[in-house]
Design goal:
The protein is of the alpha+beta class. The chain has helices at 14-22, 30-65, 77-111, 117-120, 129-140, 145-171, 173-177, 184-224, 229-240, 243-264, 301-312, 321-330, 342-360; strands at residues 270-273, 278-283, 293-299, 317-319, 335-336.
């Protein structure tokens, strides 16, 4: 196309955005998704912890109640392990299944409905040595802009999340130092309280960082799908058609409509003129409309043609400047005249019908 070096200054069109989504190219923030998934996981643990703890107790009780080394046999290892597999499934499966569902929902919330078959296609070009070398250079090049940004984000996340976790522990330093000599249940409650404060602080930090990352990813995405002026023009031609061709088609359509309109002039009852600039052909047919209709109209040369066709077909021509101008400006072709012009048009039609009746007599 010759515009590879052109500056991309135009916002992406709706068609471009649709194509990018079909390719699976959408703005997504892994940091935001990770933060929300982590919060969902902690929430699920809080909800399911009681049942999980009860099942762990039951498993330990089952183990130590039936603990008999002499009954162990290598011939039935699966039989011995099945109870433990059962308890493991009961403890972990609800949590894992619900966390998977939450993860799908969070990703869907982030990127919307996307089903890109192109992402699932196997491309042999990705296995070519040249492509693999390019990917390796891009991944391990420390001066690659995207690598620098990701590295800076990783350092920032470690520092911020670590600082939030440390602040939670530091604020409860007195409680932690006072654990010595306390009863075990009390000490465990204090440790759980400190741990909960630390988790809450770290989750909030990750959520804020994820929100900022989401904004950054949206900015990068909008920047990546921007278009050049030529691309916008080319897309417009593809979707709307070449303006020259559209103009030609419109011209042909207008010509055909004009021919149909002119073919209606011989059937008109009267042609009202201005006398030279405007011409409006009127027909009154009770079976088609309750009031007279405008079957043709035109100005200047088109008005001249209407008058000539009317003369050739013996259609009466009546000069009435106000009525001709008003009908031309307010009534479309094949449109019924408005009620406020009934009287004026009725007088013209009555005059024409009287003339015809006089000629017949």
């Amino acid at each position: 196309m010759g515009n590879d070096g052109a500056e991309k200054t135009e916002e992406a069109t709706t068609r471009r955005r649709t194509k990018e989504r079909e390719r699976g190219n959408v703005a997504k923030s892994r940091d935001m998704d990770s933060a929300l998934v982590m919060i969902a996981g902690i929430g699920l643990l809080a909800v399911l912890s009681k049942g999980m703890f009860e099942n762990i107790q039951a498993m330990l009780r089952e183990t130590f109640t039936h603990l008999n080394p002499s009954a162990f046999s290598t011939d039935n290892i699966m039989g011995l392990m099945m109870p433990y597999f059962y308890y493991l499934a009961v403890i972990t499966l609800p949590f894992l299944v619900l966390l998977f569902i939450f993860s799908i929902f969070i990703i869907r919330l982030d990127v919307g409905p996307v089903f890109a078959l192109e992402k699932a296609k196997f491309n042999l070009e990705n296995l070519s040595p040249q492509r693999m070398l390019q990917n390796a250079k891009r991944m391990f090049n420390p001066f690659e802009p995207r690598s620098l940004v990701e590295f800076a984000k990783s350092i920032l996340k470690i520092v911020v999340v670590g600082a939030c976790g440390f602040s939670a522990i530091n604020s409860r330093k007195g409680d932690l130092l006072g654990l010595v000599g306390l009863e075990t249940p009390v000490a465990i409650n204090i440790l759980l309280s400190v741990l909960m404060n630390m988790i809450i602080n770290m989750c909030l930090a990750m959520l804020i960082l994820g929100y900022l990352d989401k904004k950054y990813q949206n900015y990068e995405y909008e920047k990546s799908i921007k278009m050049t002026k030529q691309e916008v023009k080319d897309e417009y031609k593809d979707t709307e058609g070449d303006p020259k061709i559209k103009a030609k088609i419109k011209s042909i359509q207008m010509q055909m409509a004009r021919q149909r309109m002119m073919s209606s002039v011989p059937t008109a009852d009267v042609v009202v003129t201005n006398p030279t600039h405007y011409a409006v052909a009127i027909k009154y047919d009770k079976t088609k409309a309750p009031a007279p209709m405008v079957v043709a109209k035109g100005v200047d040369y088109l008005a001249f043609q209407i008058r000539e066709i009317a003369k050739e077909n013996n259609v009466p021509i009546v000069e009435n400047r106000p009525v001709a101008r008003a009908l031309y400006n307010t009534v479309p072709v094949d449109g019924v005249i408005p009620s406020d012009m009934y009287v004026a048009v009725a007088e013209i039609l009555a005059y024409v019908f009287r003339q015809k009746n006089g000629d017949n007599t």
